[in-house]
Amino acid sequence: LQKLLKVYGLSLSEFFSEPEKPAEPQVVINQDDLIEIGSQGVSMKLVHNGNPNRTLAMIFETYQPGTTTGERIKHQGEEIGTILEGEVVLTINGQAYHLVAGQSYAINTGIPHSFSNTSAGICRIISAHTPTTF
Fold first, then answer.
1. Which domain holds residue 39?
2. The total number of structural domains that make up the chain
3. Any idea what DSSP says for residue 15?
4. Under a CB-based contact definition with an 8 Å cutoff, are residues 88 and 115 in contact?
5. pLDDT by residue (tens digit) across 6-52?
6. 2-13 as b/e, with b when 16 or more CB fall inside 10 Å?
7. Do residues 99 and 83 lie in contact, with contact meaning Cβ atoms separated by under 8 Å?
8. Which residues does the UniProt record annotate as the domain Cupin type-2 (predicted)?
9. Taking the alpha carbons of 134, 67, 63, 74 in that order, is the dihedral positive or negative?
């Protein structure tokens, strides 16, 4: 038994314990449970319910004045979003779009794109992505 434990890298208690059931995906996700995936002054809080098979991602994005996603991003799928507060410049395929609160966008994320807050105020966006890339 000791040799088996060594091969499988288990302790005696782990060997005889019942396998853990995966947690059920959450129905309600609290603000404290959002996962921060942003960087460089851009906050991106991913709404994730623990479902490993999810096909849709939703992100709360906050751009401080003068921040950007950096070089153009490219990944498979689609993205839609709505500007909740402030303004942002979306650049896609060499074309710049100035968006303000209340406007929405829908893009093919296979085309290189970036977001920049060139204003003096905060910009907040809610976006949805499919398939999930985060």
1. 26-130
2. 1
3. H
4. yes
5. 666 777 677 667 666 667 888 898 899 888 988 888 999 999 888 88
6. eeeeeeeeeeee
7. yes
8. 60-127
9. negative
R_g of the chain, CA atoms, integer Å: 20
The rounded distance, in Å, linking the Cα atoms of 81 and 79 is 7
CB 95 within 8 A of CB 108: no
The confidence score (pLDDT) of residue 66 equals 95
Residue 5 maps to a domain: no
* CATH number (domain holding residue 61): 2.60.120.10
Would you put residue 94 in left (φ > 0), alpha (ψ -120 to 50) or beta? Answer: left
Q: Which of 110, 126, 109, 133 is nearest to 55 (CA)?
A: 133
Beta carbons within 8 Å of 59's beta carbon, 6+ residues apart? 37, 44, 45, 46, 47, 126, 127, 128, 129, 134
Q: What angle do CA 34, 36, 38 make, to 5 degrees?
A: 145
Residue 75, domain member (yes or no): yes
Can you give the pTM of this predicted structure?
Answer: 0.78
